[in-house]
Design a protein that fits this description.
Helix content: 40-55%
Order of helices and strands: HHEHEHEEEHEEEHEH
Structural class: alpha/beta
Strand order of the largest sheet: 2-5-8-1-9
Largest sheet: 5 strands, parallel
Number of helices: 7
Strand content: 15-25%
Shape: globular
Number of strands: 9
Radius of gyration: 23 Å
Length: 237
């Protein structure tokens, strides 16, 4: 009915999306129901300034989806995107140094991106840092301090400073295989989105698109090479 909400299937949005031409197949993101759903929810979270966390097994495309969105679909005039990769050796000091190297000093005791812009930090493999003696993960606790209170302390003189216009987007896999459980005191701030393994229909669509693109690129190169060889042969004779 007019002026009434209605339910729409994700495939309706998929029909409106187009596969972008890429030179490197490894950088190719094939539009599927999963990509449409992920991009929509990510855009909604960033638009409303809500931290978002993607959780799923390795190989489900969490990082690729977020990076593709931040690099190609995010409004560059309003947002700045930064990427931070956690590992087992990541420390809280390293995280603070990385964040502060991307921010400007707005005034005394206040840091943030350039005025009239917002910074989106994508933290990949968020649950990789090792746990200390008492079970805490210092890099996670540092980020939790920012989300809880909005400020950090200067490492030199211990004075506090405020962080403005910063939003977190994160991705991680389930605990196990070097990954650790993340405290609920931190994850409670996020909109958690589960990324499931691909089903048969999605796998078929992805591989079909990749093979089709590969053949189109290589056939085009083969035709050009053949024409070049024929031209040289004609000139030689």
């Amino acid at each position: 009915m007019k002026n009434k909400g209605e339910w729409r299937h994700w495939n309706d949005l998929l029909r409106n999306s187009e596969e972008k031409k890429v030179k490197n197949i490894r950088q190719m993101i094939v539009p599927t129901m999963d990509t449409v759903r992920t991009f929509y929810l990510l855009n909604l979270s960033i638009e409303h300034k809500r931290p978002v966390l993607f959780v799923g097994p390795t190989g489900t495309g969490k990082s690729a989806y977020v990076q593709s969105y931040l690099m190609s679909q995010l409004n560059k005039e309003e947002y700045m995107a930064f990427f931070v990769n956690f590992s087992a050796q990541t420390t809280a000091n390293q995280v603070q140094d990385i964040f502060m190297s991307k921010l400007d000093k707005r005034r005394k005791g206040v840091f943030g991106p350039p005025m009239m812009r917002k910074a989106v930090f994508f933290v990949d493999d968020m649950n990789m840092p090792q746990r200390e003696k008492y079970g805490a993960q210092p890099p996670i606790e540092l980020l939790r301090m920012f989300v809880d209170h909005g400020y950090w302390y200067d490492k030199k003189d211990t004075t506090s400073f405020v962080l403005n216009d910063i939003q977190l987007v994160a991705a991680m896999g389930p605990p196990g295989g070097g990954r650790n459980p993340v405290t609920a005191r931190f994850t409670r701030h996020f909109n958690l989105i589960s990324v499931n393994p691909f089903n048969d229909e999605t796998m078929t669509r992805i591989f079909s698109a990749v093979i089709s693109t590969y053949l189109k690129v290589n056939i085009h190169l083969y035709i050009q090479y053949t024409k070049k060889v024929k031209r040289r042969y004609t000139e030689y004779n």
